Prior knowledge:
The protein is α/β, with parallel strands linked by helices. It has a single domain (about 1-90, about 165-260), classed as P-loop containing nucleotide triphosphate hydrolases (Rossmann fold). About 40% of the residues lie in helices and about 20% in strands. Strands 6-7-8-3-9-10 form a six-stranded mixed sheet, with helices on both faces. The chain has a four-stranded antiparallel sheet with strand order 2-1-4-5, covered by helices on one side. Strand 7 (about 170-175), helix 7 and strand 8 (about 200-205) form a beta-alpha-beta unit. Helix 6 (about 150-165) runs parallel beside helix 7. The longest helix is centred in the middle third of the chain and has 21 residues, at about 115-135. It is globular, with a radius of gyration of 19 Å. Bound molecules: adenosine-5'-diphosphate (ADP) and magnesium ion. Adenosine-5'-diphosphate binds near residues 14 and 42. Adenosine-5'-diphosphate binds near residues 16, 37 and 39. It comes from Loktanella salsilacus. Pfam families: ABC_tran (PF00005), BCA_ABC_TP_C (PF12399). InterPro entries: AAA+_ATPase, ABC_AA/LPS_Transport, ABC_transporter-like_ATP-bd, ABC_transporter-like_CS, BCA_ABC_TP_C, P-loop_NTPase. This is Amino acid/amide ABC transporter ATP-binding protein 1, HAAT family. One of its GO terms (cellular component) is plasma membrane.
Amino acid sequence: MIVVENLVKTFGGFRAVDGASLSIAEGSITGLIGPNGAGKTTLFNVIAGVLQPTSGRVTMQGHDITGLAPHDLFHRGLLRTFQIAHEFPSMSCRENLMMVPGGQSGETLWNTWFGRKRIADEERALKAKADEVLDFLTVSHLADHKAGQISGGQKKLLELGRTMMVDAKIVFLDEVGAGVNRTLLNTIGDAIIRLNKERGYTFVVIEHDMDFIERLCDPVICMAEGKVLAQGTLAEIKANEQVIEAYLGTGLKNKDQVATV
Length: 261
Ligand SMILES: Nc1ncnc2c1ncn2[C@@H]1O[C@H](COP(=O)(O)OP(=O)(O)O)[C@@H](O)[C@H]1O
Ligand SMILES: [Mg+2]
């Protein structure tokens, strides 16, 4: 579904992504792991159009999408969530979901004058959709809570919910489990699996929690120093010498600790 070829992203002289090549299979939940500073977030940012690549190519279903703006990619069904959740704090969770652009006709002057009924219909549909998403994520009880007042984990769920307001094809999740308690992490994991199985979403998941990766992801890709070191099942990745070296370089004592990074 996504093919990344020789991607390079430099900051000043520093090669944060240094010739990364990888492919993401349609229908997969692909894990992306690697020590801090490996270039994972930067890779996501380049694929999702947040950053322009220095060189290299990204294709989606055979179409060149290199350097396209996030909103263009959004309309093609490529979405990303952020390491830090981006909610509108003073709006309710339901309203936050309703804010996701999805072809509402509310904005134009023509519509405000001539399309009141249509806008009302759309708003009703949008509200129903938002409630359906909250229900899917098992957080209907948060619909009227201000998004700024829910827990960090619940904000991550809301981020995932935003991807469900549009017809996403592939979703990039950056550390969806960071700072999230075990119960909520399981809820997030369940939602990802269901979206994958029932709605055909493809996922790419950056996560440090190896239990989470093990439960969800096949294959797993490991990056270090801007490069892709290995791709395979988590077991294969854990046994890979270069991967062990990369994690050892971060001060770990043995390969078992790869599992706990
Ligand atoms: N905007 C930036 N300017 C300069 N350096 C950056 C910037 N973003 C990331 N980096 C550097 O690029 C490297 C990769 O960062 P990042 O992609 O965030 O890694 P990861 O997500 O794997 O932890 C790090 O050394 C980081 O300091
Ligand atoms: Mg990161």
